[in-house]
Amino acid sequence: MAIGKNKRLSKGKKGLKKKIVDPFSRKEWYDLRAPTVFETRVVGKTLVNRSQGTKNAVDYLKNRVVEASLGDLNNNEEQAYRKFKLRVDDVVGKNCLTSFHSMSITTDKLRSLVKKWQSLIEAHVDVKTTDGYLIRMFAIGFTKRSANQVKKTTYAQTAQIRTIRKKMFEIMTREATSGTMKELVQKFIPESIGNEITKACQNIYPLQNVYVSKCKVIKFPRVDTQKLYESHGSLEDTGSKIKSEFKEPAVQAEV
Fold it and tell me: Which parts of the chain are beta strand (E)?
């Protein structure tokens, strides 16, 4: 063999591997804390790499979005069909302070509401709260049988649907623009906006299963740390329970 042709001799033994380091050994756990609107304050935990050099763990935690069921947040299984997304706005010690990001209803709940022989009415509106959140709200409702109705179907006329949709716009705009984001979340939990729409539309056409099906923030205001700390109170506090007059309607065999 010619001299200088055996290149493997200079590279050492073949098959030597790098030392395997467990990636979890570099990570830390942080608590995710929900605002005082909800009963359960600690929603869960999240992982992040430790601060090292110019890389700060807080920068990687901010703006993370977590999803939780309202049934878990309020320890009430009857409210499990509603989901809330919370965004991490600040980190204090090992606690991530969150604020409202969006709200929606589970797919199986929406599917269970849709039935034959009734009209489905939907509406959405863009509104701004008093503390600067630009949000888009979606409402959904269904027509209802009258007490002594003989007719099989409960279809509303186009003019009636248009009038009901206009009422939905008015009520959602009024409820959202009259308060802060925290006050609006407090209205979502007991389903007070849906009840308002049902009462207002009673004379146009009886409605049932009226919900604010979705609410998402289109534009966030600048984070005010003082207001954020106020919405979380003391880190040892438990949330306050919001009383709900809303009762889940019984499942109907026919519509």
Answer: 27-33, 42-49, 65-69, 82-92, 95-105, 120-128, 134-143, 207-219
